[in-house]
Amino acid sequence: MPDKSTTSEAPNSKTPTLKLDDAKTNTAELNAAPVPSGPARKIYTIVKYGDPILEKPSNAISKFDAELAGLAEDMFATMYAAQGIGLAAPQIGKSIRVAVVDVTSGKNPEAKTVLVNPEIIHFEGEKREEEGCLSIPGFRGYVVRPQFVTLKAQDLKGEWFELRGEDLLARAFCHEIDHLNGILFLQHLSMLKRDMIRRKIKKLRKQGEW
Predict the structure, then answer these.
(1) Is residue 42 part of a domain?
(2) Which of 106, 89, 113 lies closest to 173, judged by CA?
(3) pTM, rounded to two decimals
(4) Could you give the number of structural domains in the chain?
(5) Catalytic residue flag (residue 159)
(6) Measured distance CA(35)–CA(139) in Å, rounded
(7) Is residue 25 a contact partner of residue 167, using CB atoms and an 8 Å limit?
């Protein structure tokens, strides 16, 4: 089910479009490229399904400082280490509205995107593709998402911007903003598929494997 658009008015700006050069549409964890060189970053343990933080809306960010910038870099490092293309703060145990996305898995530094307090303001079309989630490892399902998405967000300095994505990038935006709203991709699946996954996770938990 596509995300609902908001009616919030974004500041007047030219909306850039980011496209995935490769035509791949799988949205689960892609093979990661080596993490770009630089200062050593903290690698967080990714919170798994069952932790309440994953299913509650996150708090808006109002303080834009070096600590937030450092957290964003740690989130990229954690995402790359887990072979993901997107990561939201609740997935590392922080209930704040910040997410990072890089559909190139570190291969193109210019594709690194930090979204602070993001909102989807427009979407078009539909595509049904398979998704996975770093917080629900080992499970996948087909989810309908918009083919094109325009969002507004703040950068690490607090400046508002608009960004347009299509296909895999649009899907990643929707998936991560869902996380910030306390929504998991499981909620977009059929009840039968969702219950099957939950039963398997419950069994794994009893076996001490979750």
Answers:
(1) yes
(2) 113
(3) 0.81
(4) 1
(5) no
(6) 25
(7) yes
